[in-house]
Write a structure and sequence with these properties.
alpha+beta; three-stranded antiparallel beta sheet
Length: 150
C-alpha cells in the first residue's frame, strides 16, 4: 500500500491492520511462506484477502451451507485465528470485525533495514491484555441497526 510511494515521500503516523513483521503465532510462518513464493513481504491487502477466504471457508464448513443467511448467522461472534496472537471475531449486533490496529510511524530512509522496512510500530491498539471493545463504538453509541434476516 505504501511501498510504491517511497521512503522519501512517506511521513506521519498511520493506523494499519497488518504489518509483515508481526510477532504472533502463525504470522511469521505465513509471512515467510509468502515471501518465498512472491519475493516480497505481504501487505495489508494480501493478508486481508487470504484471511477473508479462510474465514468464509471455515464458516461454510461450520454452517454446512453456502446460504448467505446461514453464513451471516454463523459469522456472528465467530472466532478465528487472524495471526495476531489472540482470536479475532465479528460482533453479532453490528457485524464489526474486532481486531487490533497497529499505530505506525513512517521511517526515515536511514532507519530502514531494507526497502520493505518502512514502518516503525508505535503500538498495538488495543493492547494485548485489553478488550477489542476499547477501539469500537459501543452498542449504546452506535446507530447501527441491522435489517432482520427473516
Amino acid at each position: 500500500m505504501a511501498w510504491p510511494v517511497g521512503s522519501e515521500a512517506l511521513t506521519g503516523v498511520w493506523p494499519i491492520p497488518w504489518y509483515h513483521k508481526i510477532d504472533a503465532p502463525g504470522a511469521r510462518e505465513f509471512t515467510t511462506a509468502f515471501e518465498r513464493k512472491f519475493g516480497k513481504p505481504l501487505e495489508n491487502q494480501a493478508w486481508g484477502d487470504y484471511l477473508a477466504v479462510k474465514v468464509i471457508t471455515a464458516a461454510t464448513e461450520k454452517a454446512k451451507s453456502t446460504d448467505s443467511k446461514a453464513l451471516v448467522k454463523t459469522l456472528e461472534n465467530f472466532q478465528f485465528d487472524g495471526m495476531r496472537g489472540r482470536p479475532l471475531y465479528f460482533r453479532d449486533w453490528d457485524h464489526q470485525l474486532m481486531q487490533p490496529m497497529y499505530v505506525v510511524r513512517a521511517k526515515k530512509k536511514a532507519e530502514m533495514k531494507d526497502k520493505w522496512d518502512i514502518w516503525h510500530v508505535e503500538e498495538e491498539v488495543p493492547g494485548k491484555k485489553e478488550s477489542w471493545e476499547r477501539i469500537a463504538l459501543s452498542r449504546k453509541d452506535s446507530e447501527c441497526q441491522l435489517e432482520p434476516m427473516d
